Amino acid sequence: MLRSDSSRRFLPAALVLAAAGLALSACSMGGSTAGLALAPGLSARMDQPGASLDRAQAIDIINAYRATNGLPALQHDPALDGSAQALATQYAQTGTPPQTPQELVAMKLSAGYSTFAETFSGWRNNAADAAALRANATRAGVAVAFNPASTYGVHWVLVLDN
């Protein structure tokens, strides 16, 4: 569990991100992840009622990816979480991918992945999606919506802005 004291958070957060990065790398290369465990917030299944996304851990893994590309970290923004949640809910209810609102720098969508780790891996391994993860932005919000009656069940939205 990460503590609120930032001086105590850095090392555990770095270790979680390192383990997550290694595990995700192994997954994307078809390798084994034996002995490596993802942080619960990255591997929690969202395809069930009442599931809760750990948004901070999701933004942390995106920031770890951005750091490997020489980019500054994104600030987690609760207001953008709200925007992302509205878009994810709309997406889950209609099955139609929402358009990127004009005021945003970028938006990434995904549907069908049960965990954020799977979603992030899909974004990272697709050239167009990976470019958006590297967008010139300073703030981020992320959300997920589950609709068991929809074709894909789980719908993800990441929004980036300045």
UniProtKB/TrEMBL annotation:
Signal peptide: 1-25
Gene3D superfamilies in the cross-refs: CAP
SCP domain mapped to chain residues: 60-159
Top-rank lineage group of the source organism: Bacteria
Alphabetically ordered keywords of this record: Signal
Pfam families linked to this entry: CAP
InterPro entries in UniProt: CAP_dom, CAP_sf, TAT_signal
ATP-binding listed as a keyword: no
Secreted among keywords: no
Protein name, UniProt field: CAP domain-containing protein
Record lineage: Bacteria, Pseudomonadati, Pseudomonadota, Alphaproteobacteria, Hyphomicrobiales
